[in-house]
Amino acid sequence: MTTFTSSVFRTETMTVPGGTETILRGGRDLFPLLPQSLHGVRRIGVLGWGPQGRAQAQNLRDSLAGTDVTVSVGLRPGSASADDARKLGFTEDDGTLGDWLAVAAASDLVILLIADAALAAEHERIFAVLKPGATIGLSHGFLLGHLKASGGDFPAGHPVIAVCPKGMGDSVRRLYEQGATVNGAGINASIAVHADPDGHATDRALAWSVGLGSPYTFATTLENEYKSDIVGERAILLGAVHGLVEALYRHFRLDGADPVTAYERSTESITGPIARTISAAGLPAVRAALTDDDRDLFDRAYTAAYGPAREIVAEIYDEVADGTELRSVILAEDRLASRPMSRIGGSPMWSYGAEVHARRGTTPAAIDPLTAGLFVATMVAQVDEFADRGHPWSEIVNESIIEAVDSLLPYMHARDVAYMVDNCSRTARLGTRRWGPRFQASYEQIALPSLDTPADQTLIASFLSNPTHDALTEAAKLRPSVDISVS
Amino acid sequence: MTTFTSSVFRTETMTVPGGTETILRGGRDLFPLLPQSLHGVRRIGVLGWGPQGRAQAQNLRDSLAGTDVTVSVGLRPGSASADDARKLGFTEDDGTLGDWLAVAAASDLVILLIADAALAAEHERIFAVLKPGATIGLSHGFLLGHLKASGGDFPAGHPVIAVCPKGMGDSVRRLYEQGATVNGAGINASIAVHADPDGHATDRALAWSVGLGSPYTFATTLENEYKSDIVGERAILLGAVHGLVEALYRHFRLDGADPVTAYERSTESITGPIARTISAAGLPAVRAALTDDDRDLFDRAYTAAYGPAREIVAEIYDEVADGTELRSVILAEDRLASRPMSRIGGSPMWSYGAEVHARRGTTPAAIDPLTAGLFVATMVAQVDEFADRGHPWSEIVNESIIEAVDSLLPYMHARDVAYMVDNCSRTARLGTRRWGPRFQASYEQIALPSLDTPADQTLIASFLSNPTHDALTEAAKLRPSVDISVS
To answer: Which residues bind Mg(2+) 1 (chains A, B) (predicted)?
Structure first.
């Protein structure tokens, strides 16, 4: 489902390898069309105040300001988030903050942004209070996976739609704010229409996406969204990058580098110049920026890492598609009821973050060729696995490349790995803890010991001609390059 | 089910914390009783020639020599193992080597030692050719887990028994050979009776266990066996120890140790003096052997590692009990049909094995206090998790302690980590690759950075008074201490 039509917005056709996809370019000039495109939705209820709930509730409220559409936030009784919501303008007094079930019962579009495990446990209570014909909104496909695994289903007669921003909640809000002065800033989103009993589901999803500030919106299925989202965060977006920098830091240290230099050559190189180069000029530009000697090391690192990384991505994909990964999340949430989630930022490297940040500007930010080869190989491994499994190209480049270089890595650059990981969904946080170490071990035990093997020129040629470069170029035309400013 | 009766053998009662368990002491003097105890079984078919199949077929044949019970090996058409089986005396000419389904059809006891994934795929074909009333034999409970998950069942009218040696196949054979001159040498085994239509299932299981050379046999259920076996190999037996030495080697190297010293303080310390001390004198003896300063470091390491290790053991237990771990094995086998299993011995440390081995005898083998604290904490974490989940004490100490120090670690001491891991079942090999990195990351990111925190004296006191020490002492009385001689 990469084509769709709208009765309100003018869609465009994007050229992708092997065909085309329908997309909608966003923009503040479209905000006046939102009420019409929402087709009767006058109350939007956002349930949950995690990073996505917090960002989406604010963006939708601001985009719909001055219209007759109200955005309310629904929280569980005694929620610790109520104060923050009030501080940001959602209050019981004006009816924009309330009990989650009351808000669900009063809304025409109910956006479910509570934690996945809570959604798994509580969705039936929410479904039971919905108005007839109210639209159910999701921001990723976890609930579909859970319903499939548990033999449940969405309630009949309700439109079911998803709008899935390809970035962490903080960046969804931050880039929307920047978008007030820099038109086009924002996080791309996919939409999926899972049930459309009244024929207006697509328009409502498009309105929601435009209201969030998505520079461009593309279509997928809830099933494809679910798989690429859960796999992506476990692989290049969070898990793999965490495992990679843990492995590289120790590698550089054992190779004689001092801690600050080892940090700079691993984490700093990825979150800074490598991410910026990919964002501005694509993947081959990283390799092209190197000297001949460095390029040979990049090629050897790419050769050493592509196979092992692809193997783990395939393993994750199988487990996500099969439902076992989702089971493990539910099991983990049961254990976490009685103990906190383990720390993720305790490695020695992270204690040097302040020193590294202080040196910025005094030393040139350099692309480390070894780091770049391993990172790019892993990113392409994910791209290739997604392409082989039949995902739309917009989904592939957004979920594998754009979300990394334009949303997550800039936050890791400004803060640290724990901030980046732990401001994503609990499902993502658990997945990072689960799969990051697998990538680390694979780099340490397989890729890094093979660096002396000559580069596989066929593999490098196939990298340079990978169709994802064209897809990324097309996507870049739709999303003006805006450096996110992380406060 | 920790009590059982035999119409042939004289069982004994073993005192364990909180009660007693029935056990059977083995010995070559019991071999003449085997035919009687097999109750009508005159042909035993061993299907598969992995490490367990290879060891069990030989041990049973040798123990039953001179009786009218024949042991045959059944292999799949074109099996690469046929030559090795012939070399060890199983031949088509005398009817002791044949096609797996033909051997299954001709046997009164069919021991299923093919790989787990093959068993999952092919068990129905095997069940279909069984003689009426033939006994189905397993050496661990994987198939039960698979049948439960897939809605299948064992065929009615057949006894279903398990005999589960608590050691890798190579040691089951090697200690049996040593047992010819050192009475009592062997690997302990558990038995489980899952179906007993003719009332002789327990006797048959005991005959099989005694025939393998088990110094003592204890009883459990197939379900408890399955869970403790799969969890144990993923935790202290293989996965955790691999993750631990990978973490420690890098830790010592970064702390300034040369590669050989770092190897000695990590791997060599565990596989040599720590394993030998536990085998001879139990877990507290490791701590008691240290100087005061070293004991404080041991205590701090124990304190830092116990919680994080317990958390991962609990996670593994949940996933095994839930069936998700088994699903992941099946999914992995599907992928492995088209590519080999990843290497496990590629880390820099293992290239120094020869140098370390060459130094043996020239430097005193020392218990490194940091290594010992982390290792013992992880072992106790597994013991405590198993005890909390209600496993019999014989199962706990055999699956958590004896199998490690008397079977697996001596092999790792003689060879290397890849040999130890890759001579276990494919399910174990996959589990090690899956969970070892989780332990490594946990030691690196949580335990090792916390070493400066003072020891938790309550936790140490609870370690010193842990009931497992009494259980291990009782088990040691039944199993004379014999150092395995690995050629």
So the answer is: 229, 233
